[in-house]
Amino acid sequence: MKRRAFLKDLGIGAAGALVVSCIGKSGGNEADTQPVHKNKGPMTMRKNHNSGDSVSILGYGCMRLPSLNADNTPSDSYNVDQEELNRHVDYAIENGINYFDTSPAYCKGESEAAMGIALSRHPRDKYLIATKLSNFAPSTWTREKSIEMFENSLKYLKTDYVDYLLLHAIGMNSGELDGMQAFEERYIKNGILDWLEEQRSAGRIRNLGFSYHGDVAVFDRLLREMDEGKRHWDFVQIQLNYVDWENAKAVNPRNTNADYLYNELAKRDIPVVIMEPLLGGRLANVPTAIAAQMKQRRPDDAPAAWAFRFAGTPEKILTVLSGMTYMDHLKQNTATFSSLDPITEDENDFLMRIGADMSQNEVVPCTGCAYCMPCPFGLDIPTIFSFYNRCINDDAVPHDKRHPRYAQARRQFLIGMDREVPRNRQAAHCIGCGECLSHCPQGIQIPDKMHAIDKYTADLRNKA
After folding, report:
1. What is the DSSP string of 133-148?
2. Would 313 disulfide with which of 28, 191, 249, 343, CB 3.0-4.6 Å?
3. Regarding beta strands 235-239 and 272-275, do their DSSP bridges make them parallel or antiparallel, or are they unpaired?
4. Residues 459, 460, 461, 463: is their CA dihedral positive or negative?
């Protein structure tokens, strides 16, 4: 199939084909399609030398909790399925997971309260709570509003202290402000970072750290200030996976290679928390040829297990976060880390070759974080990008109407789009308001991509 013209229309280059069905519903990490393996041993634990905590190498990410909405699809409210979440938390704690990562911004503001209900049913010493001082709404950047946000987190989480508190997504641009300016306005000029350090001294925050996205100059500054004795960071959260290790900039020039981030933290003995180990689910849906090689090497492991093992292998990694919307995801991922089988040198070389190849697949670098949501005009931005990326990688839609499979592939694309994204939430409804731009950690020009996807979809509908 020819797709170079299709890719050109969308402002990206040609990519190697990934064979995954673009008509199927995306499920995050394919654990729901893989056999559930039994745990080989107890959950692998890591020691935080700053606090003495024994931390599960698998952390429960609370960005995508079970939802009462059909197929966990977006709506005006998230509607957490509390009963199902309680079952998840019970299973997690029973199987050794003790690190739970939430935020005031997750699940359209519902995550902290839902996690507070689920976790408070267990003894407080059975779990570690990580939450954030979020920075997505400048209206919350005053000292008073920031303190209110922190106090609300304690109230919703039903606790009088936070185990791990993060400055959320430092380095991100915000409107007219670049990453450094946004950091200054959000955390320095209002004195809130000094206040958080006081709360750490008072025991209301046990570990203080930050999560990093965007401008590496901000990352370097915070570590330099630690070197100079001005600040102390108990832990840091970064994006790390086997594609981003050496090729993050190839995937998205705005990103920083994970090997640089990790090594800068490791040489300062700073415990590292990992986000995006599956790169927005892409490392669970690898090309068929790669999946076959993985299966040949380790017959019982799904592609997601390879990515998790890679992320958990470096010794300074404290925990690897995974959003586990479904119980099958939770069971599959728990088995991978119980106990963790570290990546060998040969396997590492194998994954580095795969990472270099996959970095050339120039899909939209969306990780599905949903920080861009809700869209004021109702678009389901993450699902549109997810579907689009899978179809591009699958080489599923020929641009040339003369191709013998054109009619079949055209039908597959259009039916798949309508199945995954209701018509009133598709790219055609983007007016280019730009509300989403300042919220995207990856710096994606979302309106431009939406307009290109809409143009292509409209053209397909008109070419019977």
Report:
1. E--S-GGG-SHHHHHH
2. 343
3. parallel
4. positive
Q: What is the pLDDT of residue 262?
A: 98
- Compute the distance between CA of residue 232 and CA of residue 291 in angstroms, rounded to an integer: 42
pLDDT at 1: 35
Q: Find the range with the poorest average confidence among 117-126, 134-143, 235-244, 339-348.
A: 134-143
Beta-bridge partner residues of 174: 177
d(CA 253, CA 289): 27
pLDDT digits (tens, 9 = 90+) for 5-31: 444 444 443 333 333 345 554 444 433
Q: Which residues of 41-71 are buried (b: 16+ CB within 10 A; e: fewer)?
A: eebbbbebebbebebbbbbbbbbbbbbeeee
pLDDT at 286: 84
Residue 204: both structure tokens together: 């209301």
The first and second tokens of residue 408, run together, are 């079949």
> Which own/partner contact pairs does 248-253 have at CB distance under 8 Å and 24+ positions apart?
250/359, 250/360, 251/359, 251/362, 251/365, 252/365, 252/442, 252/443
Q: How many whole angstroms separate alpha carbon 157 and alpha carbon 204?
A: 13
Percent of the chain with pLDDT over 90: 60
d(CA 374, CA 382): 10
* Residue 380, both tokens: 């389901």
Q: What number of CA atoms fall less than 13 Å from residue 66's CA on the CB side?
A: 16
Where is average pLDDT lowest: 193-202, 305-314, 367-376, 393-402?
A: 393-402
Burial pattern 292-321, b for ≥16 Cβ within 10 A else e, equals eebeeeeeebbbbbbbbbbbbbbebbbbbb
**Alpha carbons 194 and 148: distance in angstroms, whole number:** 16
CA 204 → CA 32, 122, 195, 209, 271, distances in Å?
38, 20, 11, 14, 20
Count Cα atoms within 13 angstroms, Cβ side, for 68: 10
In degrees, rounded to 5, the angle at the alpha carbon of residue 461 between the alpha carbons of residues 455 and 433 is 30
- When the pLDDT of each residue in the chain is averaged and rounded to a whole number, the result is 87
The residues, ordered by sequence, that sit 6+ positions from 439 with a Cβ below 8 Å of its Cβ are 136, 371, 372
Tell me the CA end-to-end span of the chain in Å, nearest whole number: 18
φ/ψ of residue 5, rounded to 5: -65, -40
pLDDT at residue 386, rounded to an integer: 80
